[in-house]
Amino acid sequence: MGVGYQRMLGDSSFPTLNGYAPQPYLVNWSTVAFVKPNESSWQLRYDYNFAGMGLPGLKFMTRYLRGSGVDRGRNDLDQNVESERNIVLGYVVQSGPLKDVGFEWRRIDVKTRYGNGKASGADYEENRLITTYTWKF
To answer: Which molecular-function annotation in GO is an example for this chain (predicted)?
Structure first.
């Protein structure tokens, strides 16, 4: 179980170079990113490794992130709220010709609300299938 908090300070979003995702530097980096001017965000996260149940390589993660206080420079937009929910189930092959190949299913639900009336923003849902390979030197 984990809890994270992040506060952005300044008049602009967190800078990135050509869309590079600065994951190691931001606690709440995710699909939404939570990097807007003066945004405060927090997350609640749960991870589980199934190795203790005799299923090495199988992992589960779920988290909820919420950001608020985004400064858009207009008073009618100062109540922006963003939230994201993730469910991740992954497996890394432990032996054989596919050893270290990983497969992951990631479910992402994003909701945004703008202004005092909390009008709907760019809500979306995604399902991603990801394949990875760990190269050991």
So the answer is: porin activity
CA distances from 127 to 6, 44, 88 (A): 26, 21, 10
Render pLDDT for 13-64 as a digit per residue (tens, 0 to 9): 776 666 666 556 676 677 777 777 888 899 999 999 999 999 999 999 999 9
Which residues touch 82 (CB under 8 Å, ≥6 apart)? 32, 34, 39, 41, 66, 67, 68, 70, 110, 111, 112, 113, 121
Taking CA atoms, 84 is separated from 6, 9, 56, in Å, by 15, 21, 28
Tell me if the domain spanning 2-133 has CATH number 1.10.443.10.
Answer: no
pLDDT tens per residue, range 63-119 = 999 998 877 666 555 567 889 999 999 999 999 999 999 999 999 999 988 765 566
pTM for this entry: 0.80
